[in-house]
Amino acid sequence: MIVFGWGTRAKPLGEGFCQTCDNCGNTRRFLVVENSKRVTLYFVPVIKWSREYFYVCPICSHGFQIRDRPLAQRIVAGALCDPVTPEPSLIARLREST
């Protein structure tokens, strides 16, 4: 018997900066999430493709897409240092990606 599966998986990469959500109005640390399609064999991921990165509200899941993985990692790393005040160049890059 062979057990396999496929589908989309959302994996949280870390917390971002404190922001007020435009959709629900809550102020929380947003999440950086990686969505990828994958195939599993015996519950072990074999192939991953179509990776996309999103910056989402943890309450209502409203957010926007981030252009690439390095920017997603930079958001998480920057929020570790100071979760309230993002650096200006990072804000500009986030606005470009939407």
Describe the protein in words:
The protein contains two helices and four strands. It has a four-stranded antiparallel sheet with strand order 1-2-3-4, with helices on one face. It has helices at 69-81, 88-97, and strands at 4-20, 27-41, 44-56, 63-66. Helices cover 23% and strands 50% of the residues. Strand 2 and strand 3 (44-56) form a beta hairpin. The model has no long low-confidence stretch (mean pLDDT 88). By secondary structure, it is an alpha+beta fold. The termini are far apart. It has one domain.
Looking at how many chains there are and whether they match, the oligomeric state comes to single chain
Provide the succession of SSEs: EEEEHH
Largest sheet: 4 strands, antiparallel
Low-confidence stretches: none
Helix content: 10-25%
Number of helices: 2
User: Cα-atom Rg, whole angstroms?
Assistant: 15 Å
Side by side, the strands of the main sheet go: 1-2-3-4
Write down the domain tally.
1
* Protein structure class: alpha+beta
> What value does the average pLDDT take?
88
Anisotropy-based shape: elongated
Euclidean distance between termini CA atoms: 45 Å
Total strands: the figure is 4
**What portion of the residues fall into strands of 2 or more residues?**
over 45%
